[in-house]
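Support case: user asked for a sample of complex input and structure output to validate their parser. Sending the pair below.
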Amino acid sequence: MFRNNYDNDSVTFSPQGRIFQVEYASEAVKQGSVVVGIVSKTHAVLVALKRNAEELSSYQKKVISIDEHVGVAIAGLASDARVLSNFMKTQSLSSRLTYGRAIPLERIVSAIGDRAQTNTQHYGKRPYGVGLLVTGVDETGPHLFEFQPSGMTQEMVACAIGARSQMARTYLERNMEVFVECGREELVKHGLLALKESLAQDKELTVENCSVGVVGIRGEGMKTIEGFKLYDGQEVKKWVDLVADGAEAEEAMEVDS
Amino acid sequence: MTSIGTGYDLTNSVFSPDGRNFQVEYAVKAVENGGTSIGIRCKDGVVLACEKVITSKLLKAGANKRIATIDRHMGAVSSGLVPDGRHFTSRAREEAASWRKVYKSPITTADLAGRMGGYMQAYTLYSSVRPFGVTAIVAGWDSELELPVDGQVGSGPSIGSGGKAKDKKYGGPGLYMIEPSGIYWGYYGAATGKGRQTAKAEMEKLNLAEGKMSLLDGVKEAAKIIYVAHADNKDKEFELEMTWISNLEGPTKGRHQEVPKELLEDAEKLAKKALDGDDDDEEETKDENKPAEADKMEE
Amino acid sequence: MNHLPQSWGRPRDDIYGAYDHSYLQSNGPNQHTQSPIVTGTSVIALKFKDGVVIAADNLASYGSLARFTDVKRLRSFADSSIVGFGGDVSDMQYLDRLLSSLDTREAYCSSGHSLNAQNLHTYLAKVFYKRRSEFSPLWNQVLVAGLDAESKPFLASADLLGTTFSAPSLATGFGAHLAQPLLRKVAPDEDAVAKLSEEEAVQAVKESMKVLFYRDARSLDKYSIAVVTKAGIRLKEDEKLENQSWAFADKIRGYGTQVN
């Protein structure tokens, strides 16, 4: 039934010092559809591929707005993501209430990191089966963090997680030098192009299966932030059209690479 | 491994017939795969350094700090499972804060090591938890002066708190390393993680027990040790992260801070140079470098 | 004399009458602080074009007794804000430690400190309000001086009830009656603040401290004064009131040393 004796729970180390339950949880992230995040000097974007369970069902939400200045994209168990995103909303709100301050990104990310770690060290709990990309702006500018079921959180310049995300990551690695200077539109375009790399052969981006989230700063300081804006449904059309197959897109691809 | 298949290694808090707790030993394995961390106790301060292996090109350079501040005068670094290290850090911060709440003064490095040793040991006692997959190095500077009590608003009596033995030195640098079993020792130079053997060998050459190493020399040696320890793992890129705590007269005024950028870069340059020299003639490069470093100190 | 241990430390019955045990009753409602014990008097502060000046004297009184004369009632936070405390001194010490632990927590973050005076004031007001709602108030009125999120001068007060207030100039305690009108004359509104120089502001605050010493019997001529600007904090904790003139009291008889 089990692959070995050491993978029954998350409180058992293997002789090599691994915790298989945590490693299996990261497999759940790879089952989720792909999400991509990128930051520039002024903006942070999230783009996501949505899936529907069956033809007649709705598409699973992939990008969640946490607060004016923070948004997350999820890959893996959506219900676990909801627990974490609700927790983030609470944390964010409590910072605004207690200090009148938007919570710094590093704080909110380490809060979920610490919470997830607890689940890997106590019997009767299980690791979260979801990976997150957390974007937002604070006093130190735009940020992108990756969160993993192990409780590991890392700040990235660009990142992709979920099914077939390796192709998207390859795109990001090839183009990462240009991201820092990108404006809002360019950054979303790079995100969508990375996302397209990870699409299955017969799939394409549509207003139904694509979500985009953007957050950024307009000038110096927090007062001029461009709040997290989620584009779904018809609103996302203008972004999807940007990278639609056709002459224009071909051109865009060439410029980018 | 003889333990495998006996069944005594499947649960935490269980002894094998020959008196071993295998789960703790496996936790140590997780540490041994982690990036190298070291600490050097100098006469006028303590240095912490760690090797951060770059696991992805997409990581933001210079972000993702691994050495944490526990209290103003104290820092910690760990090797092994990074999230476990964060758990260690947050508990250490709670201990330091609760100490302040009770005693209205900062916790000493020795006391914090004691508290954390106890905490980690508790995670070897129950089958409902697993041991920490980290070994942590804690460094601090305990004030040698009579500090005001936290929240003190007036100057108070000028004779101090008393109860002190004459001619005895109070305060000073502290360096402790705590292992997954909960055991901890004080060190002149501590190393853990993948490159610990190399790092230990390098530190033994420094005669740290003599207590003559200055903090600025310590920073340079620490950088060199991390570079040397990484040499066995050359195919992977890494970032060097260093923090320090000096005495009250020193550059950090008893606070735990990042080593300033210029100093870090200087130390890295020297480390790279020493490493290149090592390939040709170890002794010669050493002699060349020593006076150069000494000159720098004078400035 | 009654030598039984339960009578130790109590007024003698034969002299003071039977001891009123109702004070020691353990039944009945729980009571917390009903009044402050060791107290600091006024704190005054004034905004000017690039910052805030704040001052408080160095006295802690025990009732009418001038008990401690070297008490620093201006506490700095993160080298960027000053909190001036009026009211109970032990509650001030508690709050000071609370702020110190907050400061330590903020420094954990690698991105550095980001709590400005405005955030600090919001926090303190919440602490006060929470405690008063628990019927265990922290018996203080505080002024928070520093800069807000846009690096503009910030000055606000919070008190034991959780009440908050903000104005170009503020004063607590007796200062609210004696110093506030003087400060308002210098800076009646934000427009006046925008024109006020640091020297003028410091001068006005020092003059007000003098008036407070003349009229407030729980005050001292040793005081602390701080100027908070973008450049940081300049805090002086051992100032002495200069050029005092008691001429106005020349004709007053029957008080203090002049008994006739």
